Amino acid sequence: MRLIVITAPEPLxxxxxxxxxxxxxxxxxxxxxxxxxxxxxxxxxxxxxxxxLRPRISLHDHHGLARRGAAGGIHLxxxxxxxxxxxxxxxxxxxxxxxxxxxxxxxCDYLFLSPLFDSISKQGYRAAFPLxxxxxxxxxxxxxxxxxxxxxxxxxxxxxxxxxxxxxxxxLGYLWxxxxxxxxxxxxxxxxxLRAATGRTAPREAGTCGRCPL
Length: 214
Hints:
Shape: globular
Structural class: alpha/beta
Helix content: 25-40%
Order of helices and strands: EHEHEHEEHEHEHEHH
Distance between the termini: 10 Å
Radius of gyration: 16 Å
Number of strands: 8
Strand content: 15-25%
Strand order of the largest sheet: 1-2-3-4-5-6-7-8
Number of helices: 8
């Protein structure tokens, strides 16, 4: 199972160091989601991350940075519904219904489905899918290895994510809600608990090819 880290929506102290550590610890991809940031602010954050890790980063905004090689992939959403013309790296998208998964699966390398469980990071953001609906979607192939679970995923819920046929999970609140810049070990311990729950016992040898989605 893959593990994708999504950044907190607001800048954090010591963030570049923390993101670098998570990629080095085995995160398959990092999604840089910073809706209010300028292109210059995102470029500065990317510059602070070692260049060899940047092909495993996807941008939710300012996709032109990825086209110019500052990051490896892009993520589509309501603000940015289409990839830049000529972009050849991995493309992902957020989906909030099973119909959306079917509409976008042939246009993207992988997809997020949310909210799977009650959100950890967004108060009142409740699970949207009955368990039986998800099981039927897996049986019909709507949920498969290219669909990542998002929303409320923590180590205790990872076995259910695996049982439902998801290819992995995108993690936000579990990692960042208790983040402190002076406790990088705590962040990495939380990541290690996630990785152990996937059944992976060692860091994935992640490729750096910009075309490889995960």
